[in-house]
Amino acid sequence: MPPRPLAAPDAEAVRNALRGVIDPELGDNIVELEMVRSVHIDQDGQVVVEVALTVAGCPLRAQLRDDVTARVKAVPGVSGVKVRMGEMNPEERGALMARARWKAREGAPANEIPARTRVVAIASGKGGVGKSSVTANLAAAMAGRGLTVGVLDADIWGFSLPRMLGLEGRISGERTDAGPKIMPLEKRVGSGLLKVVSMGFLSGEDEAIMWRGLMLNRAVQHFLEDVRWGDMDYLLIDMPPGTGDVQMGLARMLPRTELLVVTTPPLAAQLVAARVVDMARKGYLRVAGVIENMSAFTCEHGVSYPLFGSGGGERLAREVGVPLVGSVPLDPAVAAGGDIGSPVVLAGPSPVADAFAAIAERLVTEVSPLVEMSGCTARMLERVEVALDPKS
Fold it and tell me: Helix or strand or coil: residue 233?
């Protein structure tokens, strides 16, 4: 029996989704900045969003259009998206600049994550699907491309990234103008840099952390607000499995987060992972894609064996309407690399290393590309500040 079509969403649901679209130069979402002029939805779920840019030739035009399209597509009931780009008149532009100046002067940032940083949460419906090994290898592959990658281990109970990334020690504090801040541990990977924060730097590897929902959420909040992350291209968040307190808290604290959902080939794993997608969309988070882990095992004679079945990642991606970003073969080298703190993606060419490298390539060039910051609004703000400076 075919699934019943979803009812068309209302405008408020679309606007809530658009709060995840950040103007990286003004540091706020396009709804609060009043850049969303109108949202029109027809009975078939076709959505037309009109966005007003500061100037017609803004270099961020394509980036904002892509982000708006991706966010609105993730709203249940949306069958298509059209984005119309307009230009603000002088009065609208003046009001926007006034809000931006006030925010920069009076409004303390809600967290320490730079506006230009792409935030990608690695999520799963249940444990045991290799979510943390995917996070560690993606982070290492992206840093190996020369990027600065933050890694937040939000799996407070089941932290494992310190060992997988070969990092030891305690995170320390530093006094800043904004108060004391936690400094992440850093690791050079080629010409890139990893910045890592985990409960593993505060607790022994064999110590149980027996916290309930409020404490778990508070820990993640501290990691977002009280860590001096500094400039980053990406922040990868290794989520705890399931759809609990941390997931709901992250949707509230960092609504621009995008999800990559990790599943394994069996149908049962696919059905559990679908719940994560449902949770994300109810929280107006964009689901960027699916990664299938532990696909076929290839023996030394070149014969492939689908030990856990096949097709789960592709089925899930098709069912929820997002791309299958890649499949990672089952290979003991992944676990071995994690045990010694050397991600397999850095060990030289191999089928599993190549798979992680290809996923990282697709993530940074297609699924969640870097933000180009040579934009129009920063220059305009600079001119406005100069004009308002009584010394000029």
Answer: coil
